[in-house]
Design a protein that fits this description.
Mean pLDDT: 76
Transmembrane segments: 12-31, 43-61, 73-93, 99-116
Distance between the termini: 20 Å
Strand content: under 5%
InterPro entries: MFS (IPR011701), MFS_Efflux_Transporters (IPR050189), MFS_trans_sf (IPR036259)
Main location: membrane
Strand order of the largest sheet: 1-2
Number of domains: 1
Pfam family, one: MFS_1
Organism: Streptomyces camponoticapitis
Length: 188
């Protein structure tokens, strides 16, 4: 059986994951200058504590609700994050608004990783083991600059066909599992 290209839904989840991680990283990296512009430079650590506390609550809420409301939670986290980021970056008018926006940001961010990883499993289907390293790479290394045109080692261009599990063993998928084998040259 020939390997086939990654299902369309896998790419969509990876694009959403990359965009979310990039947006979160930008907001997290620039929260101090954003708050300083609003004359709240002395409250940065407390606003980040608010964010972190809300993230823990977000993790718990995600665990409690994701089995019954997965799709709604994915959409809700993206909407909440976008709203919180806009409020912090554009409409920061008072300390109370900033604390509420940071809490909303934390609630949204807390369960996002779990939601996006589980969202990847359905379109990947029987190739979930091969697709999983791609989302991990987005989450762990999504913020590091890479040379143009380089792909992380764990990013599959193709997902293997039936029998890959036997070829790869029981460990994590290797390059041999994730990438399609080259066609033999003429005369070989």
């Amino acid at each position: 059986m020939q390997p086939h290209a990654a299902p369309h839904g896998v790419r969509t989840v990876l694009v959403v994951t990359g965009a979310f991680v990039l947006a979160h990283t930008i907001l997290y990296a620039y929260i101090a200058p954003i708050l300083s512009d609003a004359c709240r430079h002395a409250q940065v650590q407390w606003i980040l504590l608010d964010f972190g506390s809300a993230s823990i609550i977000g993790i718990w809420l995600t665990g409690a609700l994701m089995d019954r409301h997965h799709r709604k939670l994915v959409i809700l986290t993206i909407v909440l994050f976008t709203t919180a980021a806009a409020v912090l970056a554009i409409a920061s008018s008072s300390p109370a608004v900033d604390y509420v926006a940071a809490a909303v940001w934390g609630l949204a961010f807390g369960g996002t990783v779990t939601l996006l990883q589980s969202a990847l499993m359905e379109p990947a289907g029987k190739h979930a083991d091969a697709a999983q390293p791609s989302i991990s790479d987005h989450l762990e290394h999504g913020n590091r600059p890479r040379r143009p045109g380089r792909r992380p080692a764990s990013a599959p261009t193709r997902l293997g066909g039936a029998g890959d599990r036997e070829q790869c063993g029981s460990g994590p998928p290797s390059r041999r599992c994730c990438f399609a084998p080259r066609a033999p040259r003429r005369g070989q």
